[in-house]
Amino acid sequence: MMRSIMIAATLSTILPLATLAQSSDDLKSDEKTPENVLVYGMGYSAQRYSPLTQINKENVSRLVPVWSYSLSDLHGGESFPIVDNGVIYVTTHDATAAVDAVTGKQIWRVKHEYPPATLRVVCCGIVNRGAAIYDGMIIRALMDDRIIALDAKTGNTVWETKSPDPATPANGYAMTGAPLIVKGVVIVGVAGAEFSNRGFIEAYDAKTGKHLWRDYTIPAKGEPGSETWQADSYLTGGGSSWVTGSYDPDLDLVFWGVGNPAPWNPRARAGDNLFTNSVWAIRPETGERVWYYQASPHDPFDFDAVGTPINATIKVHGNPEKVVIQANRNGFLYVLDAKTGKLLAANPFGKVNWASSIDMKTGRPVVTDVYKGAVAGDKVTVWPSISGVTNWQHFSYSPRTGRAYINILNIGMTYQAPEPPRLKPGAPSGGPTVKRTVVTDDPNVRGYLEAVDPLTGTVKWKTPYRSPNFSSTMVTASNLVFTGTMTGEFQALDADTGKILWSFQTPSGIVGQPVTWQKDGKQYVTVMSGVGGVYALHGGDPNLKDQPSGMTLFTFALFDK
After folding, report:
1. pTM over 0.90
2. 304-to-12, 147, 408 alpha-carbon distances in Å
């Protein structure tokens, strides 16, 4: 087993005196404690909404960087910063660091070593999206399918475990997402659908690292749903789970997105290919699946449904209801009953031509000749592209405005699926199995940030960008939306109009996740700069041709006159 190395640690006496213990109750109340950011998505609901209002429309122009911290990494900076009692914890693919939140001074940094072959099995960018915090530990997944717990004060290893077979880099599995910790259970997903494996979601005991349960997203022969797979195609069926989910404590349900089937070429896997491209609702302590909703049956286009499902209470037919909202890569914005999974709304939020609508009775897409031609092996022009109308980047939801704030792509593709490939676990099952090229209808507008009513699909406003934004969004109670651009600007927009109110140029493109927090009565905003990910590497975007790489963590606050 590879080891983790402590480098450049400083004395723990510089840490704040406040306790570093984080209980299940602390995580549950994260949304009500704006001085800390303890849960991926800024709370179990994953709304990425903050009640803080000190930074507002009138003064946001005075926002300035108060410190920056180099992560010494040239890969994509997609990490979600955890903030606890004046310390920020942040990750790269092979390092974990603790930084003083007010000064930016490094407290400790741990370097994680990998076997040489590990990084060769990652299809879509060498990244990590963050850690979790619990009971004085920083818990994260590593790309070689290890889960490790570090002491939050010192960075020393508390426990380390390995995902059981067949989860190895040799079989195409990698862990790039942040864990979700619920009731002392560490829930993680895997990437790897593009390497012909069978996806799963699994869990570990947060105290000891003991493996608790595993849910395969592709059913084995004889299991419910196996009839939707042709012959033995389930063995290489994909269904990755590489983005973190959300949780509703009242319903005791974790909501998790499941990705695309493999291979991309659909001609060797006849059927709906359950349970790919679905939202799952599962019990955190047992892994029991309570319900699922499949958005894109028999998907030929790599329309992952892995985006974090947001849970919220909204009015449906005049009555408040608990719902799950997912901005799906396939181009439709779904609203589901959180308790049952019943489809309540499904509306396009970008350019879509593979389906005309979603049948509200069956929940299935009403597919067009574009989809039918693609499945038959014809060359077609499809909107959206394999990157989707949105990709992994997270949207935010404001209970104050009732709108979702989503970074979208305005890109299509030509597509053709030739003869079906023969696969074995670990073999590439993505790009080599189809032929495709990028198309645009406006090369000067490849993306938008838009405000959408989740229930009706009404777009209140949309702000154009030359390149799509792969940064997540964050919205505050002062009706500000924060996001970053791939050309490096960190921005604040008016949540009511979409007007850009403030912009700061960082050294690299931003594909990170902004958070806001408060310390001693002062509000701060933190985000990572560092271009990377599949679009930056393979999208062919001319605006990114000379974009510098390199991860830097920035924290901003209002300039005091």
Report:
1. yes
2. 43, 24, 15
